[in-house]
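Objective 1.3, modelling of assemblies. Example input:
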Amino acid sequence: MNPFSRPTQSWRPVIAVMAIAGLALLPAMGADAGHAAHDTAHAAAAHATASHGSDHGHAAVSAFSLKQIAHSYLTAYMFCLSLCVGSLFLTLAHHLFDAGWSASIRRVTETLASLLFPWMLILALPIIGFAWTGNLHAWFKIDPATDHALDVKKVLFNPAAFTVMVPVLLTLLGLMARNIRAWSIAQDKDGAAHWTTKSRKLAAGGIFFFAIGTTLLCFLLMKSLQHQFFSTMYGVYYFAGSVWTTLITLYLLTMWLAQPGRPLEKVYFKRQQQDLGVLFFAFTVFYAYIHFSQYFLIWNAAIPEETFWYVLREVGSWKWVGMTILFGHFFVPFLLLLNQDIKRNLSVMIPVGAWAWLMHYIDMTYNIMPVIHPDGLHLTLWDPIFWIGLSVLLARLFWSEYRKNPPYPQKDPRLQEAIVHHEVPAPGASAAH
Amino acid sequence: MSSNPSKPHGLLAEFHTAADIFEAAIRCRDAGFTKWDVHTPFPIHGMDEAMGLRKSPVGWFTFCGGFTGFFTGMTMIWYMNKFDYPLVVGGKPLFTPLFAFPVSYEMTILLSAFGTLFGMFFLNRLPKFHNPLFKNERFKKSTDDRFFICIESADPKFGLEATRAFLTEKCHAAVVELVED
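Predicted structure (tokens):
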């Protein structure tokens, strides 16, 4: 029986491409608007550094400006990129550790990761368009000679490097994911072990490229919105939040796919569920550790050139957004998931999953939005539109890719380890009596 | 040293495979034994359930240790930097949870680990210097290639002959008697 019974609807991706193309052309249509509010981030940063300035008001951006659309889109994009990047990491980690337990759910991460190319690349094109028209990164319009912070970072932060590196990084990461997935699918047919060996070799080198590539991507796309920043751990910060979000997504997705009559029913057990829950818990702590370290080092050194990034984020309601991340991203899930059995309790884990998505989105907002709204959190209609829109698009792309192939690696040498399941009869039900 | 040298400590049943002892553990559990244990050369997945073990309460000791550690760290730094000997360092506030956090965090880990270790000792009634099992020559193979179940005579359901018959006939094991010494 084919677990994916519905026929493919091939027109949906066409509409998606047209929508993205429309969005990519949007910045070109209103290119002039970008010049009007020149260099908001730069000005705001300068204010915060010089004095804890009170006149942030003039920097506010109207809800229908391209700047607002660009930043809302970038926030949603970084959220979706998290899921792809996190999935790629989990796939690589599976091969690096020669893991057994995750063999039965690996096709899900393989598929999500392979959306990096071409889909996340196509979705990144509007960002490049927004940047070129001066609606995102201030440094696209600043002469490095007039800005010391930019001058020392201009090797990386210049329009040409941005335009080349973002697509190239997404392509290379995506091709790595597609290769591993293609080998896994090839193994479904012949069951040869050499496909696994090939993936392991690629993962061994690929994990380094993954680390460098992901770091560069989040520096280029997100952190450099305020190019005066100082942080050596921003890459791992984005990585930690990404894998955190990916793990709970994977938890809920595989749980759903393992329901009776669905494709993972016979290969997904308590063990996979528990292990995903434990990893999610571990990354809750890891993310907090990384984010606290970044904050603490900057706070403790108290050098104005470094502190501005957080000083800006303590203005107005941003302070409460930060508190929401501290408590909502760490303390609430941490204390909730301390108990061993909770990690298999769906009436807790499903709300935690929805909460984690919200927290990661707020985390992305906290990183991106203070640039155009220095006074405090300012939500517009664009935020939910892009967040839900891109997430739904990603989900549909995932599903159309996932159903094309067997739902789990059919002849993986480690599959047997993943699905060994000890059926222990309940007390009183055994043959002893 | 015991007042009654022939008092039985329990029965030791020997198995050759993990599957055999797994089945036998389920039978022992369902027979209602409470003072018994399984000894294997390596961990066997699902054995907790097969033995009907409840979740270990050690986690509560860990939690209490961690909780104590966190607040000890915070209180210690508040006491030293703000209350007992106020000292401005680098223009920072006299107390904030921020700089107290790394210390509190390490204290959390340290006391969690102590809680886990000593909680486990307490629950297992350790340290204990002797167990009649150690005198049994065959039992040494439990670290090599044999699997053992020991049912103690302290178990309310224990009867020397009945339990021996249960282990040999229902569980198909080679059984030896252990005596207190």
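Residues 26 and 126 of chain A are 8 Å apart (CA to CA).
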